[in-house]
Amino acid sequence: MRNNRPSAALYELLEEMGGSSGLEQALATLDRRLRRLLPFEALAVFLFREDRLALAYGSGMDSSAASEEIPVGQAIAGHVAETRRPAFNLDPGLEAGSSGRFRAMIAVPLDDGAELAGVLALYSADAGVFQPADLGVLLWIREDLARAVKHALGPDRPDPAACDPLTGLPNERGLFQRLDALLMGCRRSRATLAVLVCGVDGLTEVRARFGESALGRLVQAVGAGLRRTCRREDCVARFGDEFALALGGFPAAAFEAKRASMAALVEGIGVAHFGERFLSIRAGAAWFPDDAQDAEGLLATAGRRQSASGPAPDRLAEELGRIGAALDNAAELDASTAR
Question: What is the pLDDT of residue 68?
Answer without folding.
Answer: 64
